[in-house]
Amino acid sequence: MIGGTGALGFGLAVRWSLAGVPIVIGSRSPERAEEAAAKVSERVRGAGGDAAEVEGFQNEDAASRAATVLLAVPFRAQSENLNNLRGALRPSSTLVDATVPLAAAIGGRATRTLGVWQGSAAQQAEEMAPRGVAVVSAFHTVSAAALSDPGKALDEDVLIAGDDRKAKDDVAALVRRIPGLRPVDCGELEVARILEQLTPLLISVNKRHKIKHSGVRLTGLE
Amino acid sequence: MIGGTGALGFGLAVRWSLAGVPIVIGSRSPERAEEAAAKVSERVRGAGGDAAEVEGFQNEDAASRAATVLLAVPFRAQSENLNNLRGALRPSSTLVDATVPLAAAIGGRATRTLGVWQGSAAQQAEEMAPRGVAVVSAFHTVSAAALSDPGKALDEDVLIAGDDRKAKDDVAALVRRIPGLRPVDCGELEVARILEQLTPLLISVNKRHKIKHSGVRLTGLE
């Protein structure tokens, strides 16, 4: 979990640890990573679950310890993180990109996005990742706050895009480990450019309706 | 209903007529408009409802007869239609734009969109509409086929964007007339650039899951 000290990474780590999925949290500083790992463990123990282990390491160390690496960092930090991770990502690993190119990255509104030359943040990630790493785009519409609170029931979809079927299946299986989340394969990685727009859409809906957390559920799937 | 001879316009006309909302269908040819109106009436009678009147007129005649004008035409016909409608749209009227800039307009894929200089088809409509006309963007995620079949139960949201609160409320009220549809105000008209991406997203989901009709439902709203 690169960016595991951030809100989305923290929330997902809480839910997965609760579900028995071992988590390695990465941060630029190993101390902050360990601190975040301890905080996740504490939150999970508070929920009374049988928690899987949560450890904290410096980003590259963390990434090299897992077959699935989730990038949950602000857009302005995405390139730097991917540069640093180049040596740590194995050709067989899966990189899950949850980055959203919010205009907030350059001081703009969180209800707007920036155009990314490659089409989407996920496609930028694919361009920067070592050859052979499968990039999957996901987790743009789940609320970090809702995930972080194990008492909060979830009932929504996680929309997934990617070109590698096996990698998508693996991510879908991870999503299913969290009660109340349903994975939905939305197609090829290029669809990420639409998925990444859903975050500002939900931010706009939250603002308009004065609610904390809207999500997406697709209808018509069995 | 400009483009009432097309699939989406036809489907919405069926549902609204069934719900007691009088509909005027527009087409380039008055004969085709009358034909479509007769087809809608027939479909509605078949459903056994107390249908509101459905009439057919040439586009400009149709538009001048209604306070709310819905534009449901292919993207490549949007500009021409708006040019022709200039004289027919009153400054107090509401223009509901359901146009989606699918790349299919230039022979590309229906899972991709074209970039529109103004940001979205709805914003292009606002630029072209006479001053004072309130533009509302909506109806990108409801399936024309599902709407056209009065026997099919609906259970999904209609996402709405626009700068004029009153016009959005009017459109929301029209949406509520159709059982199973819930209007959700998603913010300012600029959000249309996100809403218009949801059509290719659902087309991609339909393709991937071999289903005919997926839709969107937001969670977290009461």
Primary descriptors:
18% strand; 222 residues; two-stranded parallel sheet; alpha/beta; five-stranded mixed β-sheet; globular; homodimer; 8 helices
What does this structure look like?
2 copies of one chain form a homodimer. Chain A has 222 residues and is α/β, with parallel strands linked by helices. The first copy, chain A, is 40% helix and 18% strand. In chain A, helix 2 (30-46) links the parallel strand 1 and strand 2. The model of chain A has no long low-confidence stretch (mean pLDDT 95). Strand 8 (215-219) of chain A pairs antiparallel with strand 8 (215-219) of chain B, so a sheet runs across the interface.
Explain the layout of strands and helices:
The structure is a homodimer of 222-residue chains.
Chain A: H1 7-18, E1 23-27, H2 30-46, E2 54-58, H3 59-64, E3 68-71, H4 75-85, E4 94-97, H5 121-128, E5 134-137, H6 144-148, E6 156-162, H7 165-176, E7 181-185, H8 192-209, E8 215-219
Helix pairs in contact in A: 1-2, 4-5
How would you summarize what this structure contains?
The structure is a homodimer of 222-residue chains. Helix content of chain A is 40%, strand content 18%.
